[in-house]
Design brief:
The protein is mainly alpha-helical. The chain is about 45% helix and about 10% strand. It has three helices and three strands, in the order ββαβαα. It has helices spanning about 30-35, 45-85, 95-110; strands spanning about 10-15, 20-25, 40. The relative contact order is 0.09.
Length: about 130
């Protein structure tokens, strides 16, 4: 017995061996791709779909939070390199210069500036 082909705008899921959702798509899939990929139609209101989306979102948020911290480290590192004469600001691409200037101006107006890398003479200290 063949699987019914869902309507074009259906939400499709793929499950692992335990039956848990491991992928979702709204793409229109060909009947062959549905069968080959073991895709099945699922409702967006299904609690398993909601749990999957929440899990994926929380993982993305956690990664985004580390991206924010890393961006601050890189900004401070670039400042240290420039202050020590190891890098010229103009060596950076114009788009990078513009972004750094915008971030510097924004951070300068914040009441509690976070400096992760010091540009002291010893240069090895880390302040939070």
């Amino acid at each position: 017995m063949s699987k019914p082909v869902p309507p074009a705008a259906a939400l499709m899921c793929r499950r692992n061996a335990d039956g848990r959702i491991v992928a979702l798509t709204r793409q229109t899939l060909s009947p062959q791709r549905i069968v080959m990929g073991n895709w099945q139609a699922v409702s967006a209101a299904d609690p398993e779909v909601e749990a999957f989306v929440q899990d994926v979102t929380s993982q993305a948020d956690a990664l985004s939070q580390t991206d924010i911290g890393l961006a601050r480290v890189l900004e401070d590192l670039i400042d240290v390199l420039i202050n020590r004469g190891l890098l010229q600001f103009t060596d950076l691409p114009e788009a990078a210069q513009a972004k750094l200037l915008e971030r510097r101006e924004t951070r300068a107006h914040l009441p509690h500036r976070l400096e992760l890398l010091s540009d002291d003479s010893d240069g090895d200290s880390v302040r939070l």
